[in-house]
């Protein structure tokens, strides 16, 4: 799967899907014959209506996430874009997305239900660092 970390100032955009217990970054499954980056860009547009120009999107990290919360083990690709110009009027939620919230970086993990990957991502974002790969 692939996700987009959208940073605006000192906050990141998180969403709450109706079938999940906690918030996530805009995320979804990578389709056959689709790159991880393309999937993250597509899922972001589908879920919140934000268009992320490919040239402005950078690779952030990939995580191996062992089986948890009913999800099988998987690799999850994270991409990053910083855009301080995003206006909440630009956000349009797709069916199945209950709500969105701009979350301070030090509250990402708690909003994500303290999932291991989000604990690690929060630490990386707070430090302004990137690790190309981690396991949780």
Characterise this structure.
This protein has 136 residues and is α/β, with parallel strands linked by helices. It is 21% helix and 32% strand. The protein has 3 helices and 7 strands. The chain has helices spanning 36-48, 108-111, 116-127; strands at residues 2-8, 11-17, 27-28, 58-65, 74-82, 97-104, 133-135. Strands 1, 2, 3, 4, 5, 6 and 7 form a 7-stranded mixed beta sheet that branches. A hairpin with an 8-residue loop joins strand 4 and strand 5. The longest helix has 13 residues, at 36-48. The protein is globular and about 35 Å long. The chain starts with a strand and ends with a strand. The relative contact order is 0.26. The mean pLDDT is 96.
> In this structure, how is the largest beta sheet organized?
7 strands, mixed
Class derived from helix and strand content: alpha/beta
Question: Which H/E pattern describes the elements?
Answer: EEEHEEEHHE
For the termini, the CA-CA separation is 15 Å
Shape: globular
Work out the strand percent: 25-35%
Number of helices, counting only DSSP H or I runs of 4 residues or more:
3
**Spans of 5+ residues with little confidence (pLDDT < 50)?**
none
The amount of helix comes to 10-25%
Over all CA atoms, what is the radius of gyration? Answer: 14 Å
Q: Quote the average pLDDT.
A: 96
- DSSP E strands, number: 7
